[in-house]
What we know:
single chain; 70% helix
Amino acid sequence: MRVRKSRKKYGGSRGGDIAIFIMLFLVGLFMLFPIYLSVIQSVKPSQELFLFPPKLYAIAPTGQNYVDLLNTASNMWVPFSRYVFNSVLVAVVVTICQIFFCSFAAYVLGKTKFPGQKALNKIIEVALLFTSSVMFIMQYMVMAMMGLIDTYLAITLPYIASPMGLFLMRQFMGQIPDAVIEAAKLDGAGHFRICWQIVMPNVKPAIMTLMIFAFQGAWQVTGYAFIYSEELKPLPTVMSQISSAGIARAGVAAAAVVVTMVPPIIIFLICQSNVMETMAQSGLKD
């Protein structure tokens, strides 16, 4: 009786709850279908990959595609572990640096007053309209003038400053009451301490969200325009080279897709739970 009364009180109904559940279930299936299809394609033998109409399941699943992928990668000019190390290094460095850079810059732009603050905020909003491919030529010119071509800095430095990450952190920090920051200043805290000990713990959902986007973007960095040495190439570059051999390596290409998408999915699952938990428990009111 209490449950029914609470539903009526807040305008809910059992039929509405069931409809919402069904809709969310269908949306979830729609989002999981590409992942499922990628995994199924990676365990199909070569004779099943070209069946028409295509099957949504593997008749005789096999792990030979992954074995061929590892064998092909082991026959490259450098060990396969070096490619993995390069991608992990780039992804970790870019993610950590982007979180710190965007957090501190967002605090300055959102919670301090200085000449030209509004102009800088407008520039950041305009920068959201440009994709990274538009700036490749300019980035290459800057990297060449600084002598960073064919180094790790060439594929980490351009991705540390993210307009999207800065905009996200600035918008989230804007929800923190100014009274909290003013009270900290009266207690003698400086801007660095306020940002590190007061503001950042209260924007954990934004930090976790930024971590998902930063790691996903950094993991997909290929460095085609900046990296020429084989020992510095990241894993996505090698995977694309292996899978570009045509239909003879269609199964290997499917296995390469699964291998490259596993780390971003793991990071998403870890950060997504923290985002939901923190959003439910955190928040400040003026």
